[in-house]
UniProtKB/TrEMBL annotation:
Transmembrane regions: 106-129
Name of the molecule in the record: PDS5 cohesin associated factor A
PANTHER family given in the database record: ANDROGEN INDUCED INHIBITOR OF PROLIFERATION AS3 / PDS5-RELATED (PTHR12663), SISTER CHROMATID COHESION PROTEIN PDS5 HOMOLOG A (PTHR12663:SF2)
Domain of life: Eukaryota
Record's keyword annotation contains Transmembrane helix: yes
Annotated compartments: Nucleus
Transmembrane as UniProt keyword: yes
UniProt entry keywords in alphabetical sequence: Cell cycle, Cell division, Membrane, Mitosis, Nucleus, Repeat, Transmembrane, Transmembrane helix
GO biological process: cell division; DNA repair; mitotic sister chromatid cohesion
Database matches in InterPro entries: ARM-like, ARM-type_fold, Pds5
Amino acid sequence: MEFPQQQKPAGDGKIVYPPGVKEITDKISNDEVVKRLKMVVKTYMDMDQDSEEEKQQYLGLALHLASEFFLRNPNKDVRLLVACCLADIFRIYAPEAPYTSHDNIFFIYIKLHILFPLLIKLHIFLWMISNRCLPLLISNSHNQKVQMHMMDLMSSIIMEGDGVTQELLDTILINLIPAHKNLNKQAYDLAKTLLKRTVQTIETCIANFFNQVLVMGKSSVSDLSEHVFDLIQELFAIDPMLLTSVMPQLEFKLKSNDGEERLAVVRLLAKLFGAKDSELASQNRPLWQCFLGRFNDIHVPVRLECVKFASHCLMNHPDLAKDLTEYLKVRSHDPEEAIRHDVIVTIINAGKKDLNLVNDQLLGFVRERTLDKRWRVRKEAMMGLAQLYKKYCLHHEAGKESAQKISWIKDKLLHIYYQNSIDDKLLVEKIFAQYMVPHSLDTEEKMKCLYYLYSCLDTNAVKALNEMWKCQNMLRSLVKELLDLHKLPVSEANNTAMLGKLMSIAKNLPDAGKAQDFMKKFNQVLSEDEKLRIQLEMLISPTCSCKQAEICVREITRKLTFPKQPSNPFLEMVKFLLERIAPVHIDSEAISALVKLLNKSIEGTADDEEEGVTPDTAIRSGLELLKVLSFTHPTAFHSAETYESLLQCLKMEDDKVAEAAIQIFRNTGQKIETELQQIRSTLIPILHQKAKRGTPHQAKQAVHCIHAIFNNKEVQLAQIFEPLSRSLNADVPEQLITPLVSLGHISMLAPDQFASPMKSIVANFIVKDLLMNDRSVGNKNGKLWSADEEVSPEVLAKVQAIKLLVRWLLGMKNNQSKSANSTLRLLSAMLVSEGDLTEQKKISKSDMSRLRLAAGSAIMKLAQEPCYHEIITPEQFQLCGLVINDECYQVRQIFAQKLHLALVKLLLPLEYLAVFALCAKDPVKERRAHARQCLLKNISVRREYIKQNPLAQEKLVSLLPEYVVPFMIHLLAHDPDFTKPHEYEQLKDIKECLWFMLEVLMTKNENNSHAFLRKMVENIKQTKDAQCPEDAKANEKLYIVCDVALFVIANKSTACHLDCQKEPVLPSKFFLVQDKAIIHAFSHTFSKCCGRLHFSFHNFLTFSHSNFLRPFFRFFEVKIKKSCLGIYLRFFDSRKVLHMKLGKTEWVDRRMGNRIYNTQTFKVLKIKFLTLPGSFNLCRNPVCRKKYILNGLFSLVSLDFKISHFKSRNKMSSSGVLLSLTRSFSNSRSLKTTRSI
């Protein structure tokens, strides 16, 4: 580049030099040039801007110094001195430069990098930097060229200088602080570019600065010390190389003892690691591992910050997902609700951005949290999964592969409907309506979503969805009943009925307590606003369409909005109710759309394969869907087009499809006979054919369908009954199953017409010819259970024969002919013979299991009818209950399920709940857990029923769960495994069974129920076993079970010893009350042992006179028998006290001095034990005695005997066993004595 020509001075062009300075030219030596320039520098330094004469005088010299000779002089000193002169020249002539703009020699010098090494010593530029005036050096008015020149200047100063002072560093770094950064963007950009250019030079200075602040704690070294973390973040964004030496210092700070300091470092590193293009994690693995360790920090905010960071990290660095997964797993179980919540948010946010960012394990954490104990976490997990499902499965935004990856979400969300919380149920309903099958879609699209969703659901999800529709339909029915009550005249009975309906509705809304109040208020509004009632009636009408429902909901909400409030909980609660009862998915148009989809699947023109299901699955699932909807929306099916499609399904070969179609006709076809004659004429022969030659399920549905929709059902059923009854042939069991099913259901539905003909069939064919004969030999493979298709036709026919007997009896509902007694004896014999009624040993074990299950289920089914329950004997009840302990796992499982379903619907008497106590002996843990859940559910249902129904107070004996205890004790006393009441293992089993039931019953002490249970058991000990009252061994076993039950009760609750005013009622069928009975609180016998133990009865009895005894006990009776010693506690009036002499006892009334009972004399025996040092006086220590009394165990059993210290000559008796049982409970209750033998 060429320099511009030197400017000419004004006037004659002569250059004037300061006094004493000779002319400076290229003719002289460099040393001389330097000498003369020094004098010029001094002259210019002494000048100021006001010296106009001197400025004009030396203008020529100023122009001369800008010549090429000086600027390109090879001598460094020359260039330095010239630079100093030029700096003063700019100062003196400012604001007017002595050079023209066209030939701005200053910027020419800058561009050519001539003056850069010199300017580092210029006092003007250094003054601006030292005073942090870097922002003043640049402004918006400067163009890019000026900024570039400045950057070249400053970077050269730093790189070629001797070092960077702290002041200079602060001047640069202060522009990176957020507050300054936002004020002057140009200064920030200048500092950023400068740091990038000088990274190699300035990195050491930066490291030294941070080392002093972070490690040494010298905050006084700079005013920027408090902004170190902001500076680190900015420097890392500019160039990570600037912090090469700083990162190890951050690792040190991560391990600080100060939680707030760790939090600040974690926040910083979260931004550094999570930055989009950051490679810090791969470049500095120790720091990354140290940072991951903070996920387990003891400080909650630190863990929370780590979890929040994970979201950005997953989005920006998918390669780090593997490292984060294990730590997120731990935090998903964090005790802090907020952290678990943020784990869900982190994973879901990453998944919504790109499903590939989250692996299956991370999604599994969200899946687990749908069952979190906190509602906020559960809600976030469920809503997050719903959003992922809608985005990737419903809208297919990422293709089929992504949709397949999260295909489990739909099932999981619906499974949550099984949870007890009403909030969970409501959220599932909301998710279903907004995310799984969005109600905002048009009808065809909406039904397509539902059709294929139902086809892809697993069994449990289908059941949950069916239950959801069932609950919504039930709630609609409750609202309809409430509106019907509004149409009746006002009365007390009407108000009571309304209150009951409102309470039932409130149970189906969140926060039942507030819901009751709001529903009462809503009911008041309904009674005052007729238009509102009309809208609500239209909403729940069977003919209401989805569009009408939206209008009704909007109108009702609008009416309740006034007066407007920021928060209206009453309106929110009403919205919950309206959302549950509004038919947003199903109406007549929707059913028609579903039927069209079904027809397309049948014709093979549907998109079944594209949706991931086979045509057969789509057809079967579609029929099942229509069947379920036929229960909840039967009116929507009433159209010729729908029924024509269903008739086509009846003709298909798929048995399940035809069965579902028949059931749909049964549920919806009440108007077929009067309005659709053509459909009727086509349907009747098909139903007859299915009842005679269809599958058993088809036959059942066909018979019920005929009975439900036709007026001349007697004629129709007779046309089926007569040919089937004549064609029965036990030699061809394959053709016997369907007729037996049809005959059984016909006799149950029309008992007046067919009960008598059935009696002869039962007597001559069912019992004698079928059940009492074994025509074929079973498979002797030793299996206890086999698949349905492997069961022999003869056994299947026998099972259906047993069911026929039950249906026949249920239809008659009386026992006038004593047929029920005969049937019960037959079923009992089958159970006693383990399923082989003929005992010819022709039947295989698996077939015997089937028959045992059928017999037990039959007795349980008959017990649901009151007239038959009365004639079931205790022995038959016990045989039925013992099926739950069957050797075959499948028998136990199916029987327990049938038992639970009948009990939870309150169909079975309370005594059958006692059967679940036997499940404690089940060897399979899952079966025990299932039985416990069944107990909890049944007890909850019964308690809730008693609360909701005032009339239930009159039937407490049959409803109150506590009344199951007598039945349980009697059942356990007659357990076939309980043969030796003195053996430890058998008593241990009894204790486990009692504990299994009582633990659930005694979860809460409602209405002093614990004392009621104790009193009930004590009352049982006053009775005899009604099943065998004269059998001493049976009564002994009954009393021993009572003893163990009392131990369980006493160790479960300390409140059981309170007074109970209510007198328990014992079932007379099981217990026979004696004339004279003794209330036994505890009874134990002790076996003879070697050695001798002396009891001081004086100390033992004097204690009973103490004042503190009276509030707890009244007096006790000591009975000494020939071979053993038993301690029995009795509760009497505290004014009576026992006086005892050796060999003689008297009961004395202290107040009146009258003898209450005759003197009783017993032979006193010395009980022999292992020789002990000295004698032991029982209860000599008053403190010890008081402890026993307070624990309610004033007896020898209260001592924690160490049986291992004794060497019994004989076999351990029941006393030792019971003492061992006492020890097993003493760990959890204060039963340990202060002194042991």
